[in-house]
Design brief:
Length: about 240
């Protein structure tokens, strides 16, 4: 049996001031924080967690576990993600001490994050989720946008799903785009609001009709990934007459 109380804490899109009072209090109550170490290329992701602990919960130890390798272009995407999640669960379970253990999750733990699924695989039952500001909120705030049209729906999807869509998207937020999926299935009136490294000192914002800036944006994203070793970007696509 496990002897843990688990805190899954949303820490926002990258700005240290995105943390809520509830998140800060939860961090202070933890006996330890656990995180995956994704190597030198993504050291910034671990660095932010270290900074947040030093700022808001000094003295709380950070336990890191080497992230297992993952095939980014598998034949069976779902099967590969399931295998990866299982490998993560096994490594975390082996390293987790007793007590109140926190996980600091980018954005919000309930949106395109695997932490809760991995904890379920580990058999953890006493789990408490503290919501965080999502990159969607950070994007719309940066551009001063209302996310929905009047009385209209909002679609949130992935780059992989966008590339497989059969028609141009309208009012669609795209996350987890490993490529430049905005170049697929767009019409002449498709407008994009794009942001990378939102809430950080490296934040980059662009907007315009995809037909005008799509190629330039793809080149920019590739250059930013090369410069920083990683990239987190998100964008909103909307049809504009």
């Amino acid at each position: 049996m496990t002897n843990h109380k688990i805190l899954v804490i949303g820490i926002g899109a990258g700005n240290p001031e995105h943390l809520t009072v509830e998140a800060i209090n939860a961090m202070k109550s933890a006996d330890a924080v656990m995180a995956m170490d994704k190597g030198d290329a993504k050291a910034d992701l671990l660095g932010l967690r270290t900074y947040l602990l030093e700022k808001y919960a000094p003295g709380t130890p950070l336990i890191t576990v080497e992230d297992p390798e993952r095939d980014r272009n598998p034949v069976d995407y779902k099967a590969e993600v399931e295998r990866w999640h299982q490998a993560r669960a096994e490594r975390l379970a082996a390293a987790m001490p007793d007590g109140t253990i926190a996980f600091l999750v980018w954005g919000d733990p309930n949106l395109y994050d695997s932490t809760l699924r991995i904890l379920e695989r580990m058999g953890e039952k006493d789990i408490h989720v503290i919501p965080g500001i999502t990159s969607i909120q950070a994007l719309t705030a940066a551009f001063g946008l209302v996310l929905n049209k009047i009385g209209g729906p909002i679609t949130i999807t992935t780059g992989r799903q966008l590339e497989a869509a059969s028609s141009p998207p309208d009012n669609t937020v795209v996350m987890l785009d490993g490529h430049s999926a905005w170049q697929a299935n767009v019409g002449e009136n498709t407008y994009i609001w794009w942001g990378a490294y939102l809430g950080t000192e490296n934040e980059v914002l662009r907007h315009g009709y995809v037909t005008d800036i799509g190629d330039e944006l793809a080149e920019l994203k590739a250059n930013l990934r090369m410069e920083h070793g990683w990239i987190m970007d998100i964008y909103l696509l909307r049809e504009r007459a």
